[in-house]
Model the fold of this input.
Amino acid sequence: MKRWPPTTVKARCVAVFTVHGLGCDPKEYTTRDGQCCPVCYEGTVVRRDCTQQLGTKCGPCEYGTYMNQPNGLNKCFPCTSCDPGHGLFVQQECRATHNTVCDVLPGYLCKSFADDTGCSLAEKHKLCAAGERILEPGTSRTDTVCERCKPGYFSQDGVNCTAWTM
Done:
């Protein structure tokens, strides 16, 4: 078996350590210069990369931003806003560790829903036309279901069908 001289082994180990930066451990991130540093926790981001003497310096997310995962980023994510003009309201406020959760106002239906942020796109419930009635009222997750009035009945407002009278 061939033995490497100590200096060669040492140089080889340094080379392996430098290459290691390309594939850091799950609780580490890769810096711009290829070093592996410990990640910051939820609610914080990197303010200064680690050095051989000091660990990663993390700082809290500012108001209006959040970070919901361990990370090696230097900026928090901006909080989502829930626009009442588009049928949304704040169900849960944004915090340093989680985004805003939006839900729909009465009279609206959610068209795009995600578990972590709630509703991101709302639409007004369909209105039934004259000659129709509301079979099933709309909810936050389903649209209004309309039904034509039976013969001998009418509906001017698209809500209820009323019998014709003579």
